User: What shape does this take?
Amino acid sequence: MSYKRTKICGITNIEDALCAAENGADAIGLVFFAKSPRCVSLETAQKIVAKLPPFVSVVGLFVNQNIDEIQHIINSVPVDYLQFHGDEDETFCQQFNRPYIKAVRVQNSNDIQAALNSFKTARALLFDAYHPQEYGGTGDSFDWDMLPENINRPWILAGGLTLDNVQSAIKQSNAQAIDLSSGVEIRKGIKDHSKIKALMQKIRNR
Assistant: This one.
């Protein structure tokens, strides 16, 4: 079976970032949304990125933040991709001249199709579970049967992926890439290194 790209999101310290990299993660996610328990400061983000080995991408995550704040962050931290997890439209997302990922909180299949139609310039779409108050990292999953059989765009599966369900999730959805956060945590913002290792082994050995 083909190799699946993997991102571990909500990294808040150097040790967790290195564990993700050492176990084969293609990318880490740094959350810059102040209301998130996984939010990192600019200083911490800079220290994490400085310690990463080559070829591990850095994704900066934003939620309904203003242009100046986002620009200041990406001028201060060398992120490779921007991930927009709020209500941003395509015009907003593409103005920073960086490849971007648009997250979609899925309630029904119409949400998926609307995103496919609306974000033509996105490097990838990320499909996550809907929550009325939270923007990702909830530990909830959505009904993968809502995903179209053939999505002709790069896309990422997120939402409640764990050791128990990641293999079935990939098989059922045929995801090209997966995004992990709560499923590899001890608590919000602190990763469980044994879970990262075991889960990455499951992805490779499915």
